[in-house]
Structures are given as C-alpha cells and as structure tokens.
Amino acid sequence: MNYEEESLAEVVAGLDHLAQAPTDVLAGLVARRGVCLWINAATDEPEWTGDARADRALVAPLCASCPVRRECLEWEFRTTGGAKLDEWGLLDEVEHEAAHLAWLLRRRGGLQ
Question: Where in the numbering of this chain does the 4Fe-4S Wbl-type domain appear (predicted)?
C-alpha cells in the first residue's frame, strides 16, 4: 500500500477487512512484524530533525516497506482517539485527521 498513490477513501476502505479483528491481535501483529518496532535505535533509527515534514520523509521508506501498514493504522485509529503517533506512518496530520473521520463514518455505517 502506498498512501501517496491511494486516495484517503481508498486507504480507509482498505481497513474494512480488519473491522472484526480484536485490538490485541492487531497490537501483536504490529509488535511482531512492524518495521518501526524492529529498527535498532542505535544504528537504524533516522536522525530526527524536529521538522514534521522532514521527519516524515525520513521514515516514509520504513513505513512504505512495512508488511503491517494497514494493521498499524487500524490499531492507531482504535487506540488513540484519532491522535497521530509521532512521525511514523505516511499520512501528515491533516490527512490523518481526515482519514480518521472517514474511518469513523465507515465503522458507523455512514459511508461506503
């Protein structure tokens, strides 16, 4: 999944198959298979700039190669109340908020 090539509606629709997955199962998948949790902070972690746009560009290749991107986004939407976690993920804050709202609507049956 490449968020840059998909519309936010497509990104959110891509989470539908995870609607019935238990949150603890999603958390386990992300913990076991998430690229961001497997980097070695001493050698692999990007050198953060403090600028959100630049830092997001630093982590984009990691997130783009992650096998559990959808599971991670589903887990984040469920557990953070829509708050964005750090710079991980490929959505900026505005996109993240819009995707979270669309996700909420889909889950409540208001948008298909």
Answer: 35-98
